Amino acid sequence: MGTMVAPSLLAANFLNLERDIEMLNRSEADWIHLDIMDGVFVPNISFGFPVIDLLKKATQKPLDVHLMIVQPEKFINEIAATGATYMNVHYEACIHLHRVVQEIRKKGMKPVVTLNPHTPVSVLEDILPDLDMVLLMSVNPGFGGQQFIEHSVRKTAMLKEMILRQQTSTLIEVDGGINLETGKRLVDAGADVLVAGSFVFSSEHPEETIHQLKML
Percent of the chain having pLDDT more than 70? Predict the structure, then answer.
């Protein structure tokens, strides 16, 4: 299996969203990554369920929904109703994380837990076998186009070691500051999925950029 790529729609042109979705449908992108922000957990607001409902009708790709919000467990039913494949919640936002993960799976979605840059991978030791994927933020969440945090490469390698030690099939996804150089180092460290926003959508040839990321 090659590197999987999940372009982040946060960096798309919202005045030409249908055009960008059609481009992603044609491309080799594996999933579409959707960042939902509430202005509380992160200092920004993005889009909500009406946009996701419309996207599901327009795209042929699985949706990877990343909730950068407080109390994400309140919206499990709404996310499930959109037909999302992955529901992605922050470790830092969930007091009863195991219960949230169980509820996500019960609704037919694949549970993913995200770690902010300052949160060590060791906090996932007990819950890792219950997760389909872990998302490591390689920038501080809330805005696109930020500079890559170098420690993320070592953090990816540490998480990969934990996955191999526990013999789970958990995927590693990394989001933030992804380009061909940082992406290659992350894949070499054990990343399975790269989330790329600005690098894809600001590219002159985004479909080719997605192809190059998949070849890493």
Answer: 98
The two three-digit tokens of residue 70, written as one number: 């407080």
Q: What is the mean pLDDT of the chain?
A: 94
Residues 121-167 have pLDDT tens digits of 999 999 999 999 999 999 987 766 678 999 999 999 999 999 999 99
Contacts of 181 by beta carbon, 8 Å cutoff, 6+ apart: none
Which one-letter DSSP state was computed for residue 141?
T
Q: For the chain, where are the E strands, in sequence order?
A: 4-7, 32-37, 63-68, 86-90, 110-115, 133-137, 171-175, 193-196
Q: Which are the catalytic amino acids?
A: 35, 175
How many CB atoms within 10 Å of residue 153? 20
- Known binding-site positions for a divalent metal cation: 33, 35, 66, 175
> How many other C-beta atoms can be found within 10 angstroms of the C-beta atom of residue 13?
10
Domain boundaries, the chain: 4-214
Numbered residues of the known binding site for substrate: 8, 66, 142-145, 175-177, 197-198
Pick the CATH number of 4-214 from 3.40.50.720, 3.20.20.70, 3.30.70.1450, 3.10.450.10: 3.20.20.70
